[in-house]
Design brief:
This protein has about 290 residues and is mostly helical. It has 13 helices and 3 strands; from the N terminus they run H-H-H-H-H-H-H-E-E-E-H-H-H-H-H-H. It is about 55% helix and about 5% strand.
């Protein structure tokens, strides 16, 4: 439950933080949840008589995390999970970053939580990935589904990156896809080779011309020839056909390719660039998963 902040400064900064998340094109779930988590942190500071950014110390942050570890969950019996507490810490770090990047007084966050940093719910094995491909059909939607898998598994794109992709962003001759709307509006080039290139090329040649409606520029089209707005339902259909008993979404495919690349010996720095992570810390979560494969 969101409590209205009584500190005008904190209230203004929370609004600015929300706008910053929107401008940097964070996932919709992040834009929805992070301001709520920040609200809880700022409310805690107010209760502790810490009413200025300059007054925030590492002790305040550590005490807040301790407070969270003792607070019962509002959605299920028991305490908050370690991953949920870790998300709160990530929000505090992002709030600090927002302040610094908007040239406002900020504070340092050097705290790291012990234990695994992964919030990855499931990873598909390479056999399960193969089953997803086998579940696609030899029709126009089947070609589209294989192109979808090429983007989200083969190229490791985020959900919104794939949905925002236009035909002109596929550079077949250069064997690259151009991600123009990455997280934080950061651009990057991702390799497009082998089977991934073949699947997207087949879709462009044999499927998309039969789906397109007028002059639609989107790469992935729905049955009506318009830009595909979600891939979740299609992935669930493939999951069902493949008889995979795991929760799967577009991000599962991204997590899976990162883990498979790491297990194959690719350097963490190369995977970081491939995924478009701004820091190596975000990529390191896959080391825990890869070690368990």
């Amino acid at each position: 439950m969101k409590i209205k902040l009584t500190n005008p400064l904190y209230s203004r900064l929370q609004v600015g933080f929300s706008e910053w998340l929107r401008i940097l094109n964070f996932e919709q779930s992040s834009q929805r949840d992070m301001p709520k988590m920040l609200n809880e942190f700022l409310q805690y500071l107010i209760e502790k008589k810490c009413n200025q950014i300059s007054e925030i110390t590492e002790s305040h942050i550590q005490d807040y995390l301790n407070h969270l570890s003792e607070r019962p969950s509002r959605t299920r019996p028991g305490a908050l999970s370690q991953n949920y507490i870790r998300k709160h810490l990530q929000v505090v770090k992002k709030f600090s970053r927002y302040l610094a990047e908007s040239n406002q007084e900020s504070f340092e966050v050097n705290i790291k939580l012990k234990g695994k940093t992964s919030n990855i719910k499931s990873i598909l094995t390479q056999k399960e990935i193969a089953k997803l491909y086998e579940a696609t059909k030899e029709d126009k939607l089947g070609f589209r589904d294989r192109a979808m898998l090429a983007l989200y598994y083969g190229c490791g794109l985020r959900k919104n990156e794939g949905l925002a992709m236009n035909v002109e962003d596929v550079l077949l001759e250069k064997e690259l896809v151009y991600v123009r709307k990455g997280k934080g509006y950061k651009e990057r080039m991702v390799p497009l080779t082998g089977r991934n290139k073949e699947d997207i090329e087949n879709y462009l040649n044999y499927s998309r011309p039969h789906l397109i409606h007028k002059k639609e520029q989107a790469l992935l089209l729905n049955i009506n020839g318009k830009r595909l707005k979600t891939v979740f339902e299609r992935i669930q259909k493939l999951k069902s056909e493949a008889k995979i008993n795991k929760p799967i979404g577009s991000h599962t495919l991204r997590h899976s390719i990162a883990t498979h690349l790491l297990a194959s010996g690719m350097k963490l720095e190369h995977i970081q660039r491939f995924l478009g992570h701004s820091s190596l810390e975000s990529t390191q979560i896959y080391t825990h998963v890869a070690n368990e494969l």
